[in-house]
Amino acid sequence: MKLELRRLNVKCVKFGDKTGFDGGTLTVNKSELLALIAEDPLLGANINADIAMPGDSTRIMPVKDVIEPRWKISGKGQVFPGMLSDVETVGEGTTLVLSGCAVLTAGKLVRFQEGIIDMSGPGAEYTPYSKTCNVVLVLEPSDPNMDKHDYEKACRMAGLKAAAYLAECCAGCEADSVETYEMPTIREAMNAYPELPKAGYIYMLQTQGLLHDTYLYGVDVKRILPTIISPLEVMDGAIVSGNCVSACDKNSTYSHQNNPVIAEMLKRHGKDFNFVAVIVTNENVTLADKRRSSSYAAKLAAMLGLDGVIITEEGFGNPDADLIMNCRKCEQLGIKTALLTDEYAGQDGASQSLADSCPEGNACVTAGNANEVITLPAMQKVIGYPEEANVIAGGWQGSLADDGSITVELQAITGATSELGYTNLGAYTL
């Protein structure tokens, strides 16, 4: 497989008469964008679009998802397969990427499981999306009593439509840079780099239901057994977030599109190890399902002859059991593991960090303590609904002060402790 990413470097976003890209500026026809979104009868008449730029005194909340605008110029399939387009596989051909730009969806969906993004101030240091030029969609349902699953789907599709629309309008522009990635077939990979260990990536996706969902080619991942995919498929939009979970470690669609674990493994492929495949697995609710998926994922890793795997989690608490099952079963098969997770260690950092553990899990990277408390100063502008700070996960009644400042745990900040490592936090061993 061969994938070419043609990048336009977006340095500024503004509203104007015609949607397009020129000299680093993305111009958006607001009326045209809103008309596209308003085609969905599930969304109300009060939908709106706004712009938030890095450094602005702007707060966005409650944020549901973040999506990078993309459009396939050539090759099989189209962006967000199974969602906006046919289910033809992706990961090949040429895809246009509006780098430095993001579409944000915001609205009172589940309320306590959405997030905050500050574009400046101390909160901006904890979220990578304070550095992107953001087109923000504030979405309300057409019926306030609408089923939450219908409202979530409407919000999810609105964000994907907007991202595809913005990139498609720029498809004729000359790229600022071009990146080319290639992955061999499994047969070729088995014979490549015999002097190097074979490595893989077990990619855990949040799939616990009740609006804790992730989609692969449009299929709710809780309905699948673990499966093998190419990292290029992930990079080309095969995975879409439908999650309403704690904002700090919710894997946004943007972070799937730009998964740093995959990016780093591709850089080191053929140098430090032979990167063979990605194994997508789910996070389940029942013990039987957890056992089934973890055994199947470990079996696939063994069938591929992998010497080691990186395992990333999404969420906390219940999914910690899935993480540890994946770890233990791989280790018992002689496959070395490295785990990437975050911690919920209490506001003082003294509580048990994970809900489960095992002696085999002795190589673990932390993305930070989500219970750490931070005060976010008032912003001149708020896009969305600031009162949600009092109910958002990581907040409490009284989190929003009279002066507009907010005191919350990092749990409330979108992407603050990303378990893909798509975060600004770092750690080192003393």
| Straight-line N-to-C gap | 42 Å
Rg (C-alpha, Å): 21 Å
Overall number of strands: 24
Assembly context of the chains: single chain
How does the overall form come out from the CA principal axes? globular
The percent range for strand residues is 25-35%
Q: Structural class, please?
A: alpha/beta
Major sheet summary line? 6 strands, mixed
Mean pLDDT: 95
- Number of helices in the DSSP assignment: 8
> Spans with pLDDT under 50 lasting ≥5 residues?
none
Q: Helical amount among residues, as a percent range? A: 10-25%
What would you note in describing this structure?
This protein is 20% helix and 30% strand. The strands form six sheets. Strands 5, 6, 9, 10, 11 and 23 form a six-stranded mixed beta sheet that branches. The chain has a six-stranded mixed beta sheet with strand order 16-18-13-19-20-21, with helices on both faces. The radius of gyration is 21 Å and the shape is globular. A hairpin with a 2-residue loop joins strand 14 and strand 15. Helix 7 runs parallel beside helix 8 (318-332). The protein has helices spanning 30-37, 148-168, 186-191, 231-235, 253-257, 260-268, 287-303, 318-332, and strands at 2-9, 12-15, 20-22, 25-28, 48-52, 58-67, 70-74, 93-99, 101-106, 115-118, 133-138, 177-182, 198-206, 214-216, 219-220, 227-229, 239-241, 274-283, 308-312, 336-343, 364-369, 373-376, 381-384, 406-409. The chain has 430 residues and is α/β, with parallel strands linked by helices. It is built from eight helices and 24 strands. The longest helix has 21 residues, at 148-168.
